[in-house]
Amino acid sequence: MSWITCSLNDVLVKTENINPANEPNRLFQYVDVSSVSKEKLQIIEPQSILGIEAPSRARKVINTNDILFATVRPTLRRVALVPCHLNNEVCSTGYFVLRSNGKVLPKFIFYYLLRNEFMEQMEKLQTGASYPAVTDNQVKQQIISFPLLSTQQKIVTKLDAIFAEIDKAMAAAEANAKNAEALFQSYLTEFINKLVKKNKLISLKNICKFENGDRGKNYPSKQHQVESGIPFINAGDLKEGWSISRNGMAYITEERFNMLGAGKVKIGDLLFCLRGSLGKCGIVEDIHKGAIASSLVIIRPIPNLSISKFLYWFLSSSICNGYINAAKGGAAQPNLSAKSVMDFQIPIIDTKYQIEVSNQIDIFYAHTLTVKESYFNKIEKLTLLKQSILKQAFSGELVKE
């Protein structure tokens, strides 16, 4: 028997909305957009809220085997099936709730939404720069093809089994990548610890200069940022290792840059994060003209006393983590002051030896990156394999009717 083709709307029933405030004393399990893991494709850690405390977006009723699809940033693939323990609970209006009318199995719809072809269509339809989104109606209008229920069940059963094995292999690769990183961190900690024990210590302020960003009236706010111009470096631009990524970087005009009294970077500067990802570092290697956001501080090595790379490895070690934990303040958003960072104690060694030490650590780090990349490549291949299998499933090639 051939497959039936129709719109998603033809295989769904209308779901209902609710205002939790009408049941002020009821304890709801609320699924907001961040509650769905795009890695596990599951609902994780829904919030327990009283009806009277529910946010205005907590409006959609969910039932067992409903499929949640996040319409905000849809290509992130925040898709999940509602488990039985969340039956008759509530989710955010940031989801489209797909409830089968019985013609198509919920798990079949779930797998349909994971296909690259579907996500590519969502990417074409989404609108909005800051928060790209699609509408429920746009999702409902997508075309789905499906066979008899008995064949659907065979397809779902086979996909479940295959994906379980792939997920197991992906989890092993992820664990191995983390183990490689942990091994490097252990090596780095041991290396720095030996230097601390064998050498006298000195405050960073004695071998470096510190400079905050300009926080006065000339500080570049969002309205001053442009698509291209002078790099305006934020904490999010500090990537793995010491690199500073231009992908997604903000920019300011030459005029705004010239108005700044502080926070202008130079080649060789070390940038250190004071808020959010505390202690995250980056080295300015190819930005000849740029400025920093207030979340960062410039640590500028004093010639003949310190070098950027050695400072980077020291500040990336667990010893520095101890300094950070002791100095940080703020409950909602942990933060550090530049003054507290200036007092961090670092081993006194001459710059020639700093270069030698940094080179040794660089070699081990490069090896670690190679190992991690091999595992990430494996994960990428397994992800592509999933899509290949989904393509077979929805073209009728995975099982025969």
| Global shape | elongated
Strand content: 15-25%
Question: What string, H for helix and E for strand, traces the elements in order?
Answer: EEEEEEEEEEHHHEHEEEEEHEEEEHHHEH
Task: List the uncertain runs.
Answer: none
What is the CA-CA span between the terminal residues?
A: 7 Å
Structural class: alpha+beta
Helix content: 25-40%
Describe the structure.
36% of the residues lie in helices and 19% in strands. It has helices spanning 106-113, 116-125, 136-140, 149-198, 254-259, 308-315, 318-327, 338-342, 351-394, and strands spanning 4-7, 27-31, 36-37, 42-43, 47-50, 58-62, 67-70, 79-81, 89-92, 95-98, 143-146, 201-203, 208-212, 225-226, 230-233, 250-252, 270-273, 281-283, 291-292, 296-301, 345-347. The strands form seven sheets. Strands 5-2-9-6 form a four-stranded mixed β-sheet, with no helix packed on it. The protein has a four-stranded antiparallel β-sheet with strand order 13-20-17-18, covered by helices on one side. Strand 7 (67-70) and strand 8 form a beta hairpin. The longest helix is centred in the middle third of the chain and has 50 residues, at 149-198. The radius of gyration is 26 Å and the shape is elongated.
Descriptors:
401 residues, 36% helix, alpha+beta, elongated, 4-stranded antiparallel beta sheet, 9 helices, 4-stranded mixed beta sheet, 21 strands
